[in-house]
Amino acid sequence: MIKTIDSLVQTSLDSNTLGGVILVKMYFSPEVRYCNAYQSIYWDEDGGGEEEYIGLGNLGSLSVLTETSELAAETIQLNLSGIPNSTITDIFSTEYIGEPLYIWYATLDTDTYAVQSGQNGPVLIWAGRMDFGNIEFGQTATVTVNATSRLADWERARGGRFNLEYQQRHVDSTCKGFRYVKALQNKPVSWGAITVSDGFNSDGSGSRGGGSRGGRGNRLLR
User: Fold this and answer.
1) Which residues pair with 105 in a beta bridge?
2) How far, rounded to the nearest angstrom, does the alpha carbon of residue 104 sit from its chain's CA centroid?
3) 9: part of which helix (H) or strand (E)?
4) Sign of the Cα pseudo-torsion (168, 172, 173, 176, in order)
5) CB pairs under 8 A, 24+ apart, for 84-87?
6) What is the DSSP secondary-structure string of 144-190?
7) Of 18, 1, 20, whose CA–CA distance to 66 is shortest?
8) What gap in Å lies between CA 6 and CA 169, rounded to an integer?
């Protein structure tokens, strides 16, 4: 996907004093935010106030991210270690498969460690949905989370039917957008054909207001 990079971030990327960090947001319940720094990073993603991305340092790792010109789903793997068991219990107490996961790359101010360019600074480098996770318990827990990119949605079957009854029962009881679907089932549709009633003769020549000729009525002309 095309990525837009803020000019201040681009300057930082081009410099020899690069300070960058990976920000990860996983929509568990409650929502979980981590970064690979050795301290927490605060970032305002949507203007609702700064959110804390807890620094894991070497306790977190991310598989290699690849990009391709093909329309194919990509899979990544995140590993989180040194997490308190009580936190893991809270995270995995609700259904999380299919929930969003986002990964950004952000550059930091070398003096204040603040995310450069605010909301527009971090570059979204991966977006997808979480799949199954593995947990290893000890004094602390190690979690492996698998996720697939948004293109995986193309391969998932969609439930439901495109008819009036289903839409009114499951989507909107006032919906009338599919009220003519049933009448179209056996209706002949003349796509791109010329009829005599259009004012054209059988040889293709036309005269407006011609009507039918020779008792052929509205028979299609092939």
Assistant:
1) 22, 123
2) 15
3) helix 7-14
4) negative
5) 84/140, 84/141, 85/137, 85/140, 85/141, 87/141
6) EEEEEEGGGGGGSPPPS-SSHHHHHHHT-TT--TTTTTGGGTT----
7) 1
8) 47
pTM for this entry:
0.61
**Cα–Cα distance for residue pair 40/52, rounded to 1 Å:** 6
Instruction: Name the residue ranges covered by the structural domains of the chain.
Output: 7-155
Residues, the chain: 222
Residue 53 has pLDDT above 70, yes or no: yes
Interval 179-206: pLDDT, tens: 888 888 888 877 776 655 555 555 555 5
Judge whether 75 and 66 are in contact, CB under 8 Å: no
Considering only the C-alpha atoms of the chain, give the largest distance between any 2 of them, rounded to a whole number of Å: 94
The residue whose two tokens read 């391969």 is 155
